[in-house]
Amino acid sequence: MSMTEPSSGGRFGDFGGRFLPEALVPACLELEEAFRAAWADDAFRAELDGLLVSYAGRPSPLTEAARLSERLGVRVLLKRDELNHTGSHKINNVLGQALLCRRMGKRRLVAETGAGQHGVATATAAALFGFDCVIYMGEVDVERQSHNVFRMNLLGAEVHPVSSGARTLKDAVNEAMRDWVASVTTTHFCLGSVMGPHPYPWMVRELQRVIGEEARRQCAELLDGGVPDVVVACVGGGSNAAGIFAGFVDTSARLVGVQPEGGAAIGRGLPGVVHGSKSMLLQDEHGQVSEAHSISAGLDYPGVGPEHAHLASGGRAEYPSVVDAEVLDAFQLLSRTEGIIPALEPAHALAWVVREAGRAIPSGSTVVVNLCGRGDKDVAQVMAHLGHER
Amino acid sequence: MIPLEPHLCQRRDGGAKLLVPYVTGGLSDDWVDVVHAAVAAGADAVEVGIPFSDPVMDGPTIQEASVRALRRGTTPGSILADLARVDVGVPVVAMTYYNLAFRMGDLRFARSLAAAGVSGAILPDLPLEESADWERESAAAGVASVLLAAPVTPDDRLAAIAARSRGFVYGVSRMGVTGERLSLAGSAGVLAKRLKATTDKPVLIGFGISTPDQAVEVCAEADGVIVASALLRAVLDGGGPEAAAGFVGDLRHALDAG
User: Fold this and answer.
1) Domain housing B21
2) Is residue A266 in a domain?
3) Which of chain A's residues have a Cβ under 8 Å away from the Cβ of B75?
4) Catalytic: B47?
5) DSSP secondary structure letters along A72-109
6) Which of B44, B58, B106, B223 is flagged as catalytic?
7) CATH number for the domain including B218?
8) What is the pLDDT of residues A54-99, one digit of tens each?
9) Are residues A44 and A69 in the same domain?
10) Is A3 contained in some domain?
11) Are residues A219 and A122 part of one domain?
């Protein structure tokens, strides 16, 4: 299998597509055309690459996690996307989409956010380009990520708390789409993950591909031209996983996307259609979408990007899950062994490596973990879970 | 089941403007009485919403109605069972989001609508590019697949939507979600006129039509109106079937007076 352009209409095998109201179809067609032209335009690519270097701080290093490796008996390499400006991989995507927004003559960004990382990144890009910016965020997430809400306000964005449904990421997406229906002629919907209607799953993966391409080069240098045995990333919608997988899908590396137990759309879900695409989805027998649960606001989503559903059905990638307690343990372990406090999202990927080292991951293997976000935003929440004495 | 398009065409060609109120199925114990009251007050057809957990095209009123219905344990099956027990007297058109049909299977869903006497279905998140399978299966079950057009729909898409829509063509009055508005968007009349120029099928305009005056205004171009949030507001506020009858009666009177 490969990770190239989806077939006409945005299909990744049985998944993907463009299931959305007629009012939004012309905007998605325009966006698809604009992205295809921009992606083939050397000047656009040069401007984006320039921003990724001079503004976001790319390339991010690949760090040998020596003490963790010694502990686990596998060689762990950390792709340090938490070192990007704004603290996560989300900036890769929003800089590209902000450039596209300008190219399409629009001057307003709306976005959904869960943990707030995508909201902060979008607000950052909006400030950089002088765009208006509205971020939709579930009330529950506003509470558990109040720090990020204040950051978005500082950056000049309006944050609209969403009180419908479970008041988390899924409901924020609904509300952002409702805004977009009413504002589509002036507004770009800056979706944060490899989900939604075509062209978003493809476009966001391409904008995140830089993670995988860098990691591939860095691994080649470190491993004498070789590739790692396993590439691991956390999966909510799945943008950081799609980005790093894209760099290794044509190699022998095992690709592993780690889901939260309470949001394991691949495994516990069934095929379904929501938020513009067909994918695996947590839902009841009637097709009502279920509420996901995760300690990590960024993974608290009942669906998954359609390309991941496709990679899973074709057997090219695997999507296990971990529970919150394992995530908290991994969060602390990395902090103590490597001096790196990860976000709760990539702590899922680490938790799987910790659990499976010497089991599903044979001892002596080389494992690349995409450390897609830093843990500053999660410190207060983890402190509440663990108590101060630790 | 009453075939949708012939029924609406007959009324239109008889000189009437078409009035289609929307009721969220399973909203309350007496939701079917709300439907009967709307019909008795002059509805030409009734749109019954099958609530979905994530109604992205709906504003606060229909969201509230959907949540209330789902909390009562409403399912697609319970709504269809309620409808199967009664004779509404005019065609019923189901409105829901595609995942509920997809989960059941397109053909099975279409057949279950037909078995409950439902004449048509509106799936607003199934645009032209994704609707071919559903159009085929619904046609096989004898259910009219109603397609939607929006103000931003370009002419070539508009013609394709009008050609493929069955029963009537649903024009979305303005760019935005469902919900009451103080004034009618200028885009409503423009879209109705564009649709009328491309099809002989009934052209109904919905989204944001809240008052008799707005209904009359849009019917200067359109064949009729769909009214949802303003009616549901009255029902949600505790007005019950009487409020629905009063609201629909006022609209009927205004449309008939022209």
Assistant:
1) 4-257
2) yes
3) 286
4) yes
5) HTSEEEEE-GGGSGGGBTHHHHHHHHHHHHHHTT--EE
6) B58
7) 3.20.20.70
8) 999 999 999 999 999 999 999 999 999 999 999 999 999 999 999 9
9) no
10) no
11) no
CB-based contact, B149 to chain A, within 8 Å: yes
HSE value, Cβ hemisphere, 13 Å, CA-based, for A295: 25
The C-alpha angle with vertex A266 and arms to A265 and A271, in degrees rounded to 5, equals 75
- A25 vs B127: CB contact, 8 Å cut-off? yes
Q: Which of B47, B106, B135, B137 is catalytic?
A: B47
Hey, are the CB atoms on B127 and A26 less than 8 Å from each other?
Answer: no
Average pLDDT, chain B: 96
A370's enclosing H/E stretch is strand A366-370
Asked if A326 and A361 sit in the same domain, the reply is yes
Q: Which residues, 6 or more positions from A371, have their beta carbon under 8 angstroms from its beta carbon?
A: A78, A79, A80, A81, A82, A340, A342, A346, A349
pLDDT-derived band at A22, boundaries 50, 70, 90: very high
What's the gap in Å between the CA of B241 and the closest CA on chain A? 27
- Shared domain for A73 and A123, answered yes or no, is no
A336 and A214 in a common domain: yes
Closest-CA distance of chain B to residue A172, Å: 11
Task: Tally the domains of chain B.
Answer: 1
Other C-beta atoms closer than 10 Å to the C-beta of A186 total 10
The C-alpha atoms of residue A353 and residue A322 are separated, in whole angstroms, by: 10
Q: How far apart are CA B72 and CA B70, in angstroms?
A: 5
The shortest C-alpha distance from B91 to chain A (Å) reads 24
Confidence at A388, pLDDT banded by 50, 70, 90: low
Three-state secondary structure call for residue B84: helix
Neighboring chain A residues of B99 at a CB cutoff of 8 Å: 272-274, 281, 283, 287, 289
Q: Which residues of A touch B151 (CB under 8 A)?
A: 23
Residues A347 and A218 in one domain: yes
| Contact call for residues A291 and A272 (beta carbons, < 8 A) | no
Taking the C-alpha atoms of residue B92 and residue A299, their distance in angstroms, rounded to an integer, is 40
Q: Is residue A231 part of a domain?
A: yes
- Among A182, A183, A272, the residue with its CB nearest the CB of B103 is A272
> Hey, is the C-beta of B172 within 8 angstroms of any chain A C-beta?
yes
Half-sphere exposure of A255 (CA within 13 A, CB side): 26
Q: Of B184, B207, B237, B226, which Cα lies nearest the Cα of B64? A: B237
Give CA–CA dist A363/A222, Å, rounded: 19
The Cα–Cα gap between A21 and B125 comes to 5
A6 inside domain: no
Question: What band does A144 get if pLDDT is binned at 50, 70 and 90?
Answer: confident
- Number of domains composing chain A: 2
Mean pLDDT of B195-213: 96
Chain A partners within 8 Å of B130 (Cβ): 9, 17-19
pLDDT of A352 reads: 98
ipTM: 0.96
pTM above 0.90, yes or no: yes
For range B123-142, the mean pLDDT: 97
**Same-domain status, A314 and A233:** yes
CA-based torsion, A34, A39, A42, A47: positive or negative: positive
Q: Which residue, of A175, A200, A225, is where some domain finishes?
A: A200
Task: Give the domain-ending residue among A151, A172, A200.
Answer: A200
Residue B147: exposed, middle, or buried by beta-carbon count in 10 A (0-12, 13-18, 19+)? buried
- Are residues A33 and A76 both part of a single domain? no
Domain that holds residue A37: 11-52+90-200
CATH code of the domain covering residue A253: 3.40.50.1100
